[in-house]
Inverse folding.
């Protein structure tokens, strides 16, 4: 362990490192400031991220830039309909040893890395999509009854193409819930597009400098992730986050039990078939902690929860047919929920 | 969560922060207390002013209504003020949240208050304390709560001013001095002319009744009869009378009015129909209070001399085992209690006839309709042909509303220019018109 790792990290260290990584990524990525911040927040919160955007908006480039800036191992899987789970996790192959003995040896799949890009994850079959679940949730892969540990930090970024829906398999709720945030990459505006053209069609390529040395990158990132967990949250703010998550559930949901002090909004009851899971509350608090550190604080504020709620809750809310019919999206639902819960704040 | 060793300097800073938060809390809660107290005082003063003002200036029932309303509003306001004060007073956590909000501290204080008692603290705790300590100036009590004195003080001052302004109105309110003075003179009433009703007034010292034993015995019988009738009255009228009595008592207590008891002499002279030679029985009854009071007993008038034997023979204090009285003159049909055919049933018809006898005027007795003299009678709910005198009446009680009954009796002579009503004498048809008339009737 280097001397730098031995020293305890401070709030200022975190903010400085975060901004530096952000700066390196933006050498290559024009615009998308919020998406990059969301991506890095997910990384330091210890989660995985779902990136949604139309083709050509820089999803893959963003992930590559992140891998380069962090100086961590990076793999990419292009999901297709014929991709099999073993293609992701790895499989056992017969290998002839030096003594001419043949034996099964585990050949690790592309999941064995620090940063994994699952491109167009919704093109794979649910069976293949599910192969990622264990890796994402438990940082291990089980093949032929034997578990193989993944080396932290482990960060999965899956991309979704929202316009080409033919021949795709929508991600099941359980898998969506594994992603701490969902980041949308919008279409760049004119000024951004001009900058993209000029920076990517010239003879020089933008050179991203790694923020960490390769040897200490994993350790530094893990230390920063631990620091995030040390940020303090007052019970009132935890209660606020819990109330917000419960408010995303429709009142009539059988699994909700008694709903005390709920800030259920009519729009939720009308358009939501299933709201956020408890993982949503965890995502709110962890994302808020990252935001607090970025703001130079050691405590979470209400405004951190409000700011992170769209990223943490939108993809966890399942809309019903009425919502699609009335062109109501999850962002509107989350906005209303935030307003309703904020009004009940003590 | 790994614990952090206690840093003495950090603990000192924490104490400073907590002390400052306590000062903020004291200031906020003090203001809430002031607000509650000032609003409560303002409400009490205003309600008291309204009740006093109403007691001095309004008729009993109106006073009772206004007083009850004012008391209700005051009670509700006090409850609301108490609730508001309770809600405005802050716990330590609430003060921390308020401080965070007003000083834009992004919930640092809330976190410190919530975490400072924990035995295991985050490694970032010293950073939080140091960070909050650097911002101590931003959450000084004077910056979080600028006011030391609640603005509701103005409300209380306004209510005091209102009370001060209302004070002259109370002092200049009509007082029963004149009536009290005149009420010293005894009033003579004919028992036959009275309609006796029981009263709920408990004091029983509003009137002193006197009369000969026969009259008093008859009075007792009439009272027993009246009490029997009272039991048959409907609930609403009973309640109304009770309310009136209650209002009277309250007004007396609030205003401190001490009306001397009224001396009433009772006489049993028979009804006006049975003894037409007797003086008009309503001479005193139907006069205004001052006019009644100015008829001293034994002054030589026909009425006085007729009552003289009864004077001082027996004196009774209503109250005690006897109910206080409210007396009404009987209807026009006197003892029979039935209207007589062909007789005018208006209450003044009888008076006018009597007046005719006294004055000897031939004109209005023969054909003038006396009803037209005062306009159409108002329907005030009383039985037709009767009127009422409340023995414990005072000017406050006989205000505008009381004058709506019948006009005071005035023995004014009718127009001297008025000719007697005489039938037109029958004469022959003039000769020049006969042919015309004949032609018309032959058509």
């Amino acid at each position: 362990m280097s001397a730098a790792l031995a020293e305890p990290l401070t709030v200022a260290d975190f903010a400085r490192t975060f901004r530096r990584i952000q700066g390196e990524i933006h050498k290559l990525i024009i615009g998308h400031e919020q998406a990059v911040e969301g991506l890095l927040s997910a990384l330091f919160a210890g989660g995985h991220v779902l990136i949604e955007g139309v083709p050509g908006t820089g999803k893959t480039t963003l992930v590559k830039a992140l891998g380069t800036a962090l100086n961590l191992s990076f793999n990419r899987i292009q999901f297709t309909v014929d991709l099999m789970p073993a293609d992701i996790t790895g499989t056992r192959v017969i290998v002839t040893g030096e003594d001419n003995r043949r034996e099964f040896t585990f050949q690790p799949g592309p999941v064995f890395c620090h940063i994994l890009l699952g491109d167009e994850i919704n093109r794979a079959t649910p069976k293949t999509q599910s192969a990622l679940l264990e890796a994402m949730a438990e940082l291990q892969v089980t093949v032929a009854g034997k578990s193989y540990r993944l080396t932290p930090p482990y960060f999965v970024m899956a991309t979704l193409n929202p316009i080409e829906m033919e021949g795709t398999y929508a991600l099941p709720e359980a898998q969506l819930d594994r992603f701490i945030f969902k980041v949308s990459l919008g279409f760049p505006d004119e000024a951004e597009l001009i900058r993209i053209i000029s920076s990517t069609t010239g003879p020089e390529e933008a050179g991203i400098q790694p923020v960490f040395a390769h040897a200490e990158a994993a350790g530094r990132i893990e230390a920063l992730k631990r620091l995030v967990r040390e940020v303090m949250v007052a019970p009132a703010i935890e209660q606020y986050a819990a109330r917000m998550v419960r408010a995303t559930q429709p009142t009539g949901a059988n699994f909700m039990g008694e709903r005390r002090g709920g800030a259920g909004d009519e729009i939720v009851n009308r358009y939501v078939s299933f709201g956020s899971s408890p993982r949503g509350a965890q995502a709110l608090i962890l994302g808020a902690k990252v935001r607090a550190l970025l703001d130079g604080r050691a405590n979470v504020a209400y405004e951190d929860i409000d700011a992170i709620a769209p990223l943490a809750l939108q993809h966890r809310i399942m809309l019903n047919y009425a919502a699609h019919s009335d062109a109501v999206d999850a962002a509107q639902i989350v906005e209303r929920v935030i307003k309703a819960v904020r009004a009940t704040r003590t | 969560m790994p614990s952090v060793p206690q840093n003495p300097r950090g603990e000192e800073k924490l104490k400073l922060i907590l002390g400052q938060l306590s000062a903020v809390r004291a200031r906020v809660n003090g203001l809430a207390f002031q607000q509650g107290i000032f609003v409560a005082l303002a409400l009490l003063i205003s309600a008291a002013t309204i009740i006093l003002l109403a007691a001095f200036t309004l008729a009993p029932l109106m006073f009772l209504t206004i007083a009850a309303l004012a008391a209700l509003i005051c009670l509700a306001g006090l409850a609301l003020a108490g609730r508001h004060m309770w809600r405005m007073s802050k716990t330590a956590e609430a003060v921390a949240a308020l401080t965070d909000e007003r000083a834009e501290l992004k919930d640092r204080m809330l976190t410190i208050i919530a975490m400072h008692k924990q035995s295991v603290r985050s490694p970032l705790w010293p950073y939080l304390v140091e960070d909050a300590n650097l911002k101590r100036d931003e959450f000084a009590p004077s910056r979080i709560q600028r006011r030391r004195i609640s603005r509701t003080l103005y409300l209380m001052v306004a209510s005091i001013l209102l009370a001060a302004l209302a004070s002259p109105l109370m002092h200049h309110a009509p007082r029963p001095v004149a009536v009290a003075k005149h009420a010293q003179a005894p009033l003579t009433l004919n028992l036959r002319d009275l309609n006796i009703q029981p009263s709920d007034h408990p004091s029983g010292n509003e009137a002193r009744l006197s009369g000969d034993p026969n009259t008093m015995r008859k009075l007792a019988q009439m009272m027993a009869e009246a009490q029997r009738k009272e039991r048959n009255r409907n609930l609403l009228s009973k309640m109304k009378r009770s309310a009136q009595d209650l209002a009277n008592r309250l007004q007396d207590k609030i205003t401190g009015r001490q009306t001397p008891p009224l001396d009433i002499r009772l006489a049993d002279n028979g009804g006006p129909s049975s003894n037409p030679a007797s003086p008009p029985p309503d001479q005193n009854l139907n006069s205004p209070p001052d006019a009644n009071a100015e008829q001293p007993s034994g002054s030589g008038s026909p009425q006085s001399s007729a009552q003289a034997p009864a004077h001082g023979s027996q004196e009774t204090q209503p109250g005690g085992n006897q109910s206080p009285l409210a007396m009404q003159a009987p209807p026009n049909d006197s003892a029979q209690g039935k209207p007589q055919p062909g007789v005018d049933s208006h209450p003044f018809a009888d008076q006018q006839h009597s007046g005719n006898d006294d004055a000897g005027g031939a004109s209005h007795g023969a054909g003038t309709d006396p009803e037209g003299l005062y306009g159409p009678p108002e329907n005030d709910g009383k039985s037709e042909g009767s009127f009422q005198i409340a023995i414990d009446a005072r000017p406050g009680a006989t205000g505008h509303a009381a004058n709506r009954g019948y006009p005071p009796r005035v023995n004014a002579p009718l127009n001297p220019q008025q000719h007697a009503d005489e039938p037109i004498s029958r004469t022959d048809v003039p000769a020049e018109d006969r042919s015309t008339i004949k032609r018309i009737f032959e058509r």
